[in-house]
Amino acid sequence: MSETLAESVRVHKEGQLSHLVLNRAAHLNALNPEMLQTLLTHLERLNKNEKVRVLVISADGEKAFVAGADINSMASLGPRPIADYVELGQRVMRQIETVRFPVIAAVHGYALGGGLELALACDLIVAADDAKLGQPEVGLGILPGFGGTQRLIHRCGVAAARRLVYTGEIISAEEALRLGIVDKLVPRGEIIDAAYAWANTIIQKAPLAVAASKRVIRESQDQCLNAGLRLEVAAFLELFPTLDREEGMDAFKHKREAKFTGK
Ligand code: COA
Q1: Which single residue of 31, 34, 54, 248 has CA 20 to 30 Å from 40?
Q2: Which domain holds residue 82?
Q3: Is the pLDDT of residue 4 over 60?
């Protein structure tokens, strides 16, 4: 692993309670392919480390947990590389969902697009009171491609999922708590302590029982989730070659309003 790769995701702790920190704050921790691959490598390694009982994922920087997939890395990709990018994002989220141990997201600031999708793939979400969450992809001419359409439905029901995905609205932490998107709301300075407190409670319980609980809860939803995830990738790859997608991403790059034409 190159030094840059290693730095985009920092291993803050590795042991019973492990902690990964996303570390690309100058870009609001936007998930580019290298960062996704690094995250995947860490998750695979931690899953093989029998000591690990709970993983906490948080992010460095003042403004954001993760502001989404990296729009700038994505914008100029051709059909094969964009398919590889979306599939890599989906694999990372799936890996979080299938590791032996519970994963807790500690979310502050913006958790948008791929950032909310990352949190949704985790077992528990602790949010800071400054968290702002949403799936703004329709404003870029695409739809959530890292599992957001599906995991939102599973977490908070189809009605809230429709509203968030169709409008791209960014909601407050209070509203996310009310909708059941996040599990706990704490002052900004307390998210890591709150995540560790849950982690330590889980660590006191029987390891095999916790792992079996995670597996059983996940497998009860898998059939429906897997079918939905395939539909989501197909729709994403259909939208990617459209003029609206080019317009949406160009508008983001040049910090202007997008003008969509439905083409
Ligand atoms: N991909 C790539 N770069 C991103 C990014 C993303 N998803 N989100 C933010 N950045 C970059 C910005 O381009 C900017 O880079 P620059 O300093 O080189 O111009 C930097 O991070 C800081 O972001 P900025 O937009 O200046 O901060 P802000 O406080 O004005 O706005 C957001 C914050 C989150 C509202 C805004 O960055 C945003 O809308 N990001 C995209 C959200 C999104 O659509 N996510 C889904 C992606 S599929």
Answers
A1: 248
A2: 3-189
A3: no
